[in-house]
Amino acid sequence: MINRHPSISELLAGQADVLHSKWRFNIRKRIVELNQQKYVLYRFRTKRTMEHFEQTIHRLAGAGIAVQSVCARTSSFGQYLRHGHWLALSYLPGRPLPNNPNRDGLISLGQTLAKLYSLEGPPQRALFERRQPKLPHEAYLAAETQLSDKHRTWIRESMDRLRRLPATQLTHGDLFGNNIIQNDDQSIGLIDYELLAYDLSGIELAATLLRPFCRRGQKRRILMRAYLTSCSPQLRQVWRQCGRDLVFAAAARLALARQDRVRHVTRKNRLLKIGQLLPHRPVREAATRQLEANVRIIRAAMRNEAYYLNITRTMIDLCLAEPDADPISLLQQCDLLFVRPV
Q1: What is the domain class of 8-91 according to CATH?
Q2: Is the domain covering 98-342 a CATH 3.90.1200 domain?
Q3: CA distance linking residue 197 with residue 43, whole number of Å
């Protein structure tokens, strides 16, 4: 018996259970379940964006990366009039990368990143987002008002070194554990493609070393050894020459992102507190549940922000003292000096 995927019209009909929904500027995302199968649906403002998204997924697959496959799409003018421009992707088999991944999983991740970064395009260009990637140094300098002149000079010099590099590699843009899928054979796949961008791949690579699943020296070395063995000679040279700058940029970008997240969730909480005052009881209860969840989100973001800020502040001092030190060794020293917030 042939296992037929449902059409876009069937996935958008009332029989499909909506498990998750999210809006971005150009894309609306929806996860649905129909006949005990889950699908990820994307709605696009234009047909051109939809086709570009589909072509990018095919390009990732062509590079040897395990990605979600397109199983349904808006294919007729009548479907467009009824629903708009939609793509449906299958669920990728496997499970999210755990916080304590094994050696084979880290090796596979390093090799997958090398394949991803082999794809190139226009410099510093987001594929589907309105906000374009940029170096975080100026925003970091504006946010960190207590820096010494010596630290500010190092940050500006580091920014100048990175500006001279080609920011043309395809990056995932949201490479945390839940978007990295590990299969039973230890192979790695990537999901969630809304934030794909051409950027300095070394910043995302360095950010991967700072994620909770990679905060140990041995795990970092396993991943980096697999990546450097698999990547192009040009990217290998970039890491060896500018690895310290890339780690600083990654930590600064992650810290600033956590600050943005706290501000965003705090603004949402103001609206939720208004919801708690409404007379309709289900609305009040839903607002209270979301407020409690947001408290946990803010606490987690602030914990991660403290970790990333420790990396930025400590890394500058270590680089000034040991300008030729190995980035992994510097990260290990940063971790030893980190004091967890109470």
Answers
A1: alpha beta
A2: yes
A3: 19
Q: What's the order of all strands across the beta sheet hosting 169-171?
A: 125-126, 197-199, 169-171
Q: Judge if 8-91 and 98-342 fold alike in CATH terms.
A: no
Report the sign of the C-alpha dihedral through residues 118, 121, 123, 127, in that order: negative
Degrees (nearest 5) of the Cα angle 9, 10, 11?
95
Q: What does the mean pLDDT of the chain come to?
A: 92
Per-residue pLDDT band for 342 (boundaries 50, 70, 90) equals low
Determine the Cα–Cα distance for residues 95 and 98; give it in Å rounded to an integer. Answer: 8
Single pTM value for the model: 0.92
pLDDT tens for each residue of 270-325: 999 998 898 889 889 999 999 999 999 999 999 999 999 999 999 999 999 998 99
For the chain, domain boundaries? 8-91, 98-342
Reported as type and span, the H/E element at residue 211 is none
